[in-house]
Amino acid sequence: FSRQKRTPGYEVFQPLMHSKTIERLNIERDLIHALRNEELRVYYQPIITLKNLQIVGFEALVRWQHPTRGLVSPCQFIPIAERTELIVDIGEWVMKTACQQMKNWSLQFPDRSLKISVNISLKQLKDPDLMAKIDRILVGTGWDSHKLQLEITESMLMDDVDDLLKIFAQLATRKIQLSIDDFGTGYSSLSYLHQFPVKYLKVDRSFIKNIYTHSESKKITELIVMLAHNLDMEVIAEGVETTQQIECLRPFNCEYVQGYLFSAPVPVEAATKLISEI
Ligand code: C2E
Ligand code: MG
Ligand code: MG
Ligand code: MG
Q1: Domain named EAL: which ranges (predicted)?
Q2: What distance in angstroms lies between residue 132's CA and the mean position of ligand 2's atoms?
Q3: Which atom of ligand 1 lies nearest, measured to the CA of 118?
């Protein structure tokens, strides 16, 4: 985690460290060993077509089976991992594990064609070894690159445009597709959006949450879907929990939905069941 710059020779002494700081340090200390101790897990949440409710793929979402804390949510440790270099190794492990699992499912269910979507942090995207790591994972697992999607957040697009375009071009040669996650909540310049080779826009769940009850949320969602379609992107609605929300989305011709209504993110065994049931 980042330290404040201090005058050399002086030590800022705080008699009581804020308990949140201590908590963060504890998590960071444990996280260093989590990978080696095989404490991380990948959960899978189905992504479904709105039209006929078919599973087209999964989003890989990491969890941490902590020895004393139990199952820890990524919200509690990903931001900490992102302040250190840990996110780079964790992200690589998630991608490898997910691609390996997808390969296994493709052998088990040869008539199904499913894609995997993996969340990726800015530090990973800017890692000079990213392409080498991706290639190693694809070769090692035998998973097809065109069935791998990377989810980036809107605010990541505010980074150096030329840098990003180079990275995105390298992904494009591998036919790896990009999604923008949590769209509508981050800081992004709409005028930037069209220059990036983005295939999917994921409407943030805060809009979907109120889509049936608040006409503003519905109007904003409609606007996002129209924007995406105008830019030749497809739309995934995140956090769909009710059939009313589904019916609100239908007239917008939103392509995909994802949410608890269909399934929460689940471990391998439960996800296998989902695939076999459809
Ligand atoms: P995200 O990528 O936007 O993932 C969607 C989050 O919404 C997930 O939370 C998912 O469990 C939750 N969700 C899905 N459907 C519903 C619903 O119907 N209702 C509600 N209330 N929630 C729903 P989760 O798994 O706790 O992950 C939180 C965030 O942590 C993710 O947000 C993503 O930003 C980050 N994250 C998770 N795994 C990874 C990873 O492997 N790498 C990186 N860099 N970030 C990750
Ligand atoms: Mg995501
Ligand atoms: Mg999201
Ligand atoms: Mg989110």
Answers
A1: 24-278
A2: 23
A3: 41
260: Cβ below 6 Å to ligand 1? yes
Cβ count within 10 A of residue 141: 19
Answer positive or negative: Cα dihedral of 67, 119, 59, 150. Answer: negative
Query: What is the rounded CA–CA span in Å between residue 149 and residue 124?
Result: 14
Give the environment of ion ligand 4: residues with CB less than 5 A.
Answer: 182
Instruction: Give yes or no for a contact between 256 and 179, defined as CB atoms under 8 angstroms apart.
Output: no
Tens digit of pLDDT for each residue in 21-58?
888 899 999 999 999 999 999 999 999 999 999 999 99
Task: Assess whether pLDDT exceeds 80 at residue 3.
Answer: no
Give the residue ranges of DSSP H helices in 62-160.
74-83, 86-108, 122-125, 130-141
Give this complex's ipTM: 0.98
Which tokens go with 141?
A: 């697992």
- The single-letter code of the amino acid at 85 is E
